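Dear colleagues,

I hope this message finds you well. In preparation for our joint manuscript, I am sending the CREG-like beta-barrel domain-containing protein (Elstera cyanobacteriorum) sequence together with its predicted structure, so that both groups work from identical material. I would be grateful if you could confirm receipt.
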Amino acid sequence: MVCGILCPSCCPRITLAWVSHQFTAKKGSITMDLTAEARRILLGARRGALATLSGEAKDPYASLVSTVAGEDLAPLLLLSTLSQHAQNLAADPRASLLLESPEVATAPDALAAGRVTLQGTVEKADKDGLRAAYLAAHPEAEMYYQFTDFHLYRLVAPRLHFVAGFGRVVWLETAML
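The corresponding structure tokens are as follows:
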């Protein structure tokens, strides 16, 4: 570790045991393992802010999307090819997705609650094979699922940035979860 925090440029090969040991934090009287908390957010998130790169200048573009974790924890996204974010992804598949813990909605200080930011590339997923999993989380999307311009995508992210609250921040490899 060179920078004093866990970042992928200085610490690309952080082990799960080291992260679990060094970054176990207290939340009230309950010990909270940050890797388990990051996993909980990935599994429970139903919406997020998707950031894509727009136009020739590759300007950042963020939009609200519905999501659910696939079996490998990769977020699944049902997007219309008519949408700006899908058009951006067709030109450049790099993206970032911010997911928040359920506690954000009721926390007096939302920034003290947990959140995960994934960085990676978006690729098409098996729309028919993952239909039941996606619609179980988003039954309201049944109508959209039938439209031919809607496709299912997955965000393949080798790492994520997890903020468990003030001073509890770590980069994790998604394979560690």
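For the figure legend, we might mention the following. Confidence is low (pLDDT under 50) at residues 1-32. The CA atoms of residues 22 and 37 lie 15 Å apart.

With kind regards,
E.M.
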